[in-house]
Amino acid sequence: MKQRLCSVVFGGVFLLIGLVFLWAGIPHTNLVTCNRIALNQVDCQQQEKILWWIPIKTVSLKNLQAISLGKGTNYYDSIVYFISLKGEENNLMFGNSLNLEDIQGDLLKAQQFFQDSKKISLTLARYKAEYFVAVLGFLLIILGFQIMTWKSIN
C-alpha cells in the first residue's frame, strides 16, 4: 500500500510539472484589434488566445486617446518595451519585448492608424510557441501516468 501511494505521489509530481511545461509551450497569440466607431472615436479590444483560436482573456478599451512607447523593467532589471494604448477608463499594454526594434514597427503602424481617420481598423498580433517545451511537457505527462499506474511484479 505504501509503495502504491509513493508511486501515485511521485507520478503526480511528474504529471503536474508536465502540465506546466505543456501550457508554457503551446502556441499563444496576443491580439489587439481597434475599430474606428466615429471620426474621433476608436474602440479597441485585446485578446489572448491559445492554440490560435481558444480565447482565454479579453479586455476592452473604450475611446482610445493616445498611443505611445512604454518602458519598464522585468524581473532581471532589463528594460522592456511595449506599446501603451491609453483609453478613457483604462490602458492596454501590447508586445512586451527586450528589443526596441521588435516594437517600433507595430508602434508606427498603430500611430498611423490613430492619426489617419480614413483607416477604419487596426490589428496587431504577437505569436509565441515553444514546441520543444510542449513536447517535453507531453513526455513528462506520459511518464507521470506510467509511474502512477505502475504495478510491481511479485
Can you walk me through this structure?
This protein is α+β, with helices and mostly antiparallel strands. Helices cover 38% and strands 39% of the residues. The protein contains 3 helices and 7 strands, in the order αββββββαβα. The chain has helices at 2-25, 100-115, 131-148; strands at 28-38, 41-50, 54-61, 66-73, 79-86, 91-97, 121-128. The strands form 2 sheets. Strands 3-2-1-7 form a 4-stranded antiparallel beta sheet, covered by helices on one side. It has a 3-stranded antiparallel beta sheet with strand order 4-5-6, with helices on one face. It is elongated, with a radius of gyration of 22 Å. The two termini are 14 Å apart. The mean pLDDT is 90.
Lateral strand order in the biggest sheet? 3-2-1-7
CA(first)-CA(last) distance? 14 Å
**What is the gyration radius calculated from CA atoms?**
22 Å
Poorly predicted residue ranges: none
Separate helix tally: 3
- Strand segment tally: 7
Encode the helix/strand succession as letters.
HEEEEEEHEH
Share of helix, binned = 25-40%
Main β-sheet: number of strands, strand sense, barrel status? 4 strands, antiparallel
- Specify the structural class: alpha+beta
Approximate shape: elongated
Mean pLDDT: 90
Percent strand equals 35-45%
